[in-house]
Amino acid sequence: MRILCLNGPNLNRLGKREKEAYGTFTLAELEQDLKAVAETAGVTLECRQSNHEGELIDWIHGAEDEEMAGIILNAGAYTHTSVAIRDAIASVKVPVIEVHISNIHAREEFRHHSYIAPVAAGQIAGFGQDVYELALHAFILKRKREQG
Fold first, then answer.
1. In tens digits, what is the pLDDT along the chain, a chain of 148 residues?
2. Annotated catalytic, 78?
3. Which of 4, 18, 69, 86 is 20 to 30 Å from the Cα of 60, by its Cα?
4. Residue 105: active-site member
5. 111 labelled binding-site residue
6. CA pair distance 60, 98, nearest whole angstrom
7. Which domains are seen in the chain, by residue range?
8. Is 74 annotated as a binding residue?
9. Considering 78, 100, 115, 132, which one is annotated as catalytic?
């Protein structure tokens, strides 16, 4: 089972930016921890980050060709602005779980709307870096149920 973890704009600044909302861990630490969990579960995890909308879209499209079982996506601010990323998700058969480190529904009003949520398999928000592990476990549970 292969899972793709995509992080959007400004997530490369984890550990440096708005620590009260995003914590003190870095993206490298988050990815290292998540890869360890994935390895223990027998899952291959590939992590990528970009500040560029088009690159994220290309990776979403490519996930189908790469036969990924799922995508864990923190689109950052693109969650609230990008119809293009929404359309990319809708165009592939690979399920996407939308994640947010902070509780977007408890923050500024503009963060309450997600273009991604209507086309995602689910959304997990507000549990810090654990949102990634929760999404990974959701894909693992889905696989177990499908296998009977």
1. 999 999 999 999 988 866 666 667 899 999 999 999 999 999 999 999 999 999 999 999 999 999 999 999 999 999 999 999 999 999 999 999 999 998 888 887 877 899 999 999 999 999 999 999 999 999 999 999 998 8
2. no
3. 18
4. no
5. yes
6. 13
7. 2-147 (3.40.50.9100)
8. yes
9. 100
